[in-house]
Design brief:
The complex is a heterodimer of chains A (about 250) and B (about 200).
Chain A: H1 3-7, E1 41-42, H2 47-50, E2 82-91, E3 101-105, E4 131-135, E5 141-147, E6 152-154, E7 160-162, E8 165-170, E9 179-185, H3 203-207, E10 210-213, E11 224-227, E12 230-232
Parallel strand pairs in A: 2-11, 2-12, 9-10
Antiparallel strand pairs in A: 2-5, 3-4, 3-8, 6-7, 8-9, 10-11
Chain B: H1 20-23, E1 51-56, E2 58-59, E3 70-75, E4 99-103, E5 111-116, E6 121-122, E7 128-129, E8 132-138, E9 146-152, H2 156-161, H3 163-167, H4 171-174, E10 178-183, E11 186-188, E12 191-192, E13 202-203
Parallel strand pairs in B: 1-11, 2-12, 9-10
Antiparallel strand pairs in B: 1-5, 3-4, 3-8, 6-7, 8-9, 10-11
Classes of the chains: A mainly beta (about 250), B mainly beta (about 200).
The complex binds fe (iii) ion.
Chain lengths: ~250, ~200
Amino acid sequence: MDKSDMRSQGPLYPRDKTLHPKALTPDYKSSLFRSPKMALVPVNTTMSEISGPVFGPNILGEFDSDLTKNYCSAEQMAIGEQIIVHGKVFDENSKTIPNVLIEVWQANAGGRYRHFSDSYKAPLDPYFGGCGRCVTDQNGYYSFKTIRPGAYPWPNGGNNWRPSHIHFSIFGTSFAQRLITQMYFEGDPLIKLCPIANTIEDPASLNTLVAQLDMKRTIHMDARAYQFNIILRGRFSTIFENKMDGN
Amino acid sequence: MDKLHRLKEIPSQTAGPFLHIGCVPNQIGLNTFGGIDLGSVLLSKNTEGKRITLTGKVFDGKNMPIRDGMVEIWQADANGLYQTSDTKSDGSDLNFSGWGRSHCDFESGSWIFETIKPGPVMMNNGSWMAPHISFWIVARGVNLGLNTRMYFGDEHSLNEKDPLLQELKDTKRIRTLMARKITENFYEFNIYLQGENETIFFEI
Ligand SMILES: [Fe+3]
């Protein structure tokens, strides 16, 4: 995409709130005291929301997108089932978006995070940090290599286990497209039991976070592949001079 | 617009308590990405504009500071221009990133930015927005990142003419968007997720 094209794009489509979790989701206990009680105040978007930080591949180091290798020396490798996670980033107009920074973090194969506040008893993997990032190419394509994270129990007042998941932080081309979400794995029976996954009420919407096993992209004798396409908010294609800034 | 090919945005999920691993890995000792977390530095020696320190906390409904959350900011430069992918042609300050990220301190809950005071921003219709900084807040228990705006409490005359502030008729809540000037170069902006001081969050 021509860079000047991004700059000249218009405001975003209003967010379809039915696709997203509500702020207060009592089955997920942490939301009780962290959910605003007042309704969000709708505003007409301005340059402050339409613009946003954009990162190119120049920020990346050699192993940023290989979590099996980026926390150990060259002859070592993270423990677990090796997988490729890949897909394209689109906007709601089906247009692919280049230069989208994707940051990922996850538990190790045993379900343990390399984080001081994770108290789960599963062992740390000395070869796995759990942090990676990549940037979409000119066709909106991204991929990274990692190990399949384990499920883990978490404190929520009951016998709650998180399904295997990878946390995603995604930058579009505008601050209003900023999104943090989680990717799940096709066929995981824990998804439908998970209070966090089920903060999303619409099953079709939740299903868009479930990566599909993709045998076509498997690397022989190395890694299976999962496909996860990411859709960000779309923009009106032209600036409506009078509507863009309201009044 | 071609309705046939409309896709739907994928849904949000909470960033959870371990967001530091992916977003500020060097703050928890992962020593990765060259040792510098993205968004930790907005300025360089040559950045134009008045240096300010901006700090605050994010409070939950029990009035306790959140210590596992993260705040991102996005702002214009000293001349009111945003860094964009087309920056080279619009004259914005190439020595200013405009985007910052700070986790809430693990003990105090404070987030902090060393930045510059943004200039007023001209809108497409020719009117001006008062200097302001866009905020995005994520944390465990926050299902969808929260957007708000910070204005400078000491900019009375510019704030009075700001189109967004003018639209907010509930003047009592407008104060939740105002940073408090502590000293000439130091502002405090506390964010309240719930309660009588609940910050105005925007649907943008
Ligand atoms: Fe997790």
